[in-house]
Design a protein that fits this description.
This protein is an alpha/beta fold. The protein has one domain: 3-Layer(aba) Sandwich (Rossmann fold). Helices cover about 30% and strands about 35% of the residues. A 5-stranded parallel beta sheet has the order 4-3-7-8-9. Helix 2 (about 30-50) packs across helix 3. Homodimer. Pfam families: Pribosyltran (PF00156). It is found in: Cytoplasm. Catalyzes a salvage reaction resulting in the formation of AMP, that is energically less costly than de novo synthesis.
Length: about 180
């Protein structure tokens, strides 16, 4: 029986800024069985893409990606916000739905030729995904897929990266 994960995602209006509807995944995380099932679904997707490693952007990508990597017995690579990693890094900038930022990965985090699946909580404008893809490719890896709890199709993230296979548990159309 398929689970309708949208029943467990809280919608918070005007957070973090006026006009934004924040999709809060913490109700899923608070339910151990639901979290396990969501993780398993993303892990099955990553397995189908023959991933060698999982990348998760800071911060909720850690929460989503680490258990996927663990379930599959794969390594996990954090894509961190600037100045959080102690060794030499590669950096890429991106725009958010409500601002801009950069992501960094250690220069030795992705091995040449590795097949990478990115896991995160939400894809909106695909800015984080685009920056992560740039980092992965600059380090010699290949982004073979991206898995999200939530996708906001109206923001056309898929259209911005048509060469990336994208999987999501829930899609929210409109506000």
């Amino acid at each position: 029986m398929a689970i309708d994960f949208s029943k467990y995602i809280a919608s918070v209006k005007d957070f973090p800024n006026k006009g934004i509807v924040f999709r809060d995944i913490t109700p899923i995380l608070q339910d151990g069985e639901l979290y396990r099932i969501a993780t398993h679904e993303l892990a099955e997707y990553a397995k189908s893409r023959k991933a060698d490693v999982i990348v998760g952007p800071e911060a909720r990508g850690f929460i989503v990606g680490c258990p996927v990597a663990t379930e599959l017995g794969l390594g996990f690579v954090p894509a961190r916000k600037p100045h959080k990693l102690p060794r030499e890094v590669e950096r890429a900038s991106y725009d958010l739905e409500y601002g801009s930022n950069s992501l960094e990965m250690h220069k030795d985090a992705i091995k040449p030729g590795q097949r990478v699946v990115l896991c995160d909580d939400l894809m909106a404008t695909a800015g984080t995904l685009r920056a992560s893809k740039e980092l992965i490719e600059n380090l010699g890896g290949k982004l073979v897929g991206a898995a999200f709890y939530i996708e906001l199709p109206d923001l056309k993230g898929r259209e911005k990266l048509p060469d990336v296979d994208i999987y999501s548990l829930v899609q929210y159309h409109g506000a």
